[in-house]
Amino acid sequence: MTPAARARAAARPKAPRGWQFSRLAIAGREVTARLIGPGIAWLIRGPAVRGQEHLAELDGPCLICPTHASHLDFSSVRLALGPRHRRRLAAAAAADYFSVSRPRWFVAAWLGSFAFKRTGGGAESVAAAEGLLAAGWNVLVFPEGTRTTTGDIGAFRPGAGLIAGHTGCQVLPVRITGVRDVLPKGARRPHRAQVEVRFGTPLRATPGEDPRQFTGRLEAAVRAL
């Protein structure tokens, strides 16, 4: 390998390492999904899915950007995606979930998550997401950054735009409704209610597009679902 080739290889973002990205963990998650998934599906009454045809428009690893109102958002999206698209799915989870307690760390890792800093150290988190995309993983990022407490969609942060611009990957807009009725932020006990997951047409950043401009397009697409 030439020095220039080595430099290019060193500059490529690296996927984060961890047992949650192993083949055994991937298989274990799917087994768990088939065992526990029906119970979650009962709780959220489905979920009902709209725009499922847009999944067929995905031509490679993509960035999945749903709204965020509940801890059940990720499970709802996983069920709506189905086995093919969720098999290699990594979710960006707030970095504090990996440090608050061992049970939280295990649950976050078991779900295939990686630490994503919401404030400070953003470049490192973006690079981790880009590394996973380059390694063939679909990556789920909540562009609002945190769960809504009102039910309204919050302003999107520019991280998704940065990742989309750097990688050229497709970005799947997703809006989840009803999940706040099941398990809102701060609640300890879920209540059965109808959840709907709506997929939009995949987007792609145009060459030279400002990350904030793309994030604005993405937010508008999600709000229109």
Share of helix among residues?
A: 40-55%
Q: How much β-strand is present in the residues?
A: 5-15%
What is the CATH first-level class name?
A: Alpha Beta
Largest sheet: spatial strand order: 1-7-6-2-5-3-4
N-C termini distance:
48 Å
In the predicted model, the low-confidence regions spanning at least 5 consecutive residues are 1-11
CATH architecture heading: 3-Layer(aba) Sandwich
Question: What would you call the structural class?
Answer: alpha/beta
- Domain count: 1
Average pLDDT level: 89
Q: Sheet with the most strands?
A: 7 strands, mixed
Order of helices and strands: HHEEHEHEHEHEHEH
CATH fold-type name: Glycerol-3-phosphate (1)-acyltransferase
Radius of gyration: 17 Å
Number of helices: 8
- Gross morphology is globular
The CATH homology group name: Glycerol-3-phosphate (1)-acyltransferase
How many β-strand runs? Answer: 7
Describe the structure.
Helix 2 crosses helix 3 (73-86), helix 5 (122-134) crosses helix 6 (159-167) and helix 6 (159-167) packs across helix 8. Helix content is 41%, strand content 15%. The model is unreliable at 1-11 (pLDDT under 50). It is of the alpha/beta class and 225 residues long. It has a 7-stranded mixed beta sheet with strand order 1-7-6-2-5-3-4, sandwiched between helices. It has one domain (18-223): Glycerol-3-phosphate (1)-acyltransferase (3-Layer(aba) Sandwich), CATH 3.40.1130. The chain has helices spanning 3-11, 23-43, 73-86, 102-110, 122-134, 159-167, 179-182, 211-223, and strands at 48-50, 62-66, 89-94, 113-116, 138-140, 170-177, 196-199. The longest helix is centred in the first third of the chain and has 21 residues, at 23-43. It is built from 8 helices and 7 strands, in the order H-H-E-E-H-E-H-E-H-E-H-E-H-E-H.
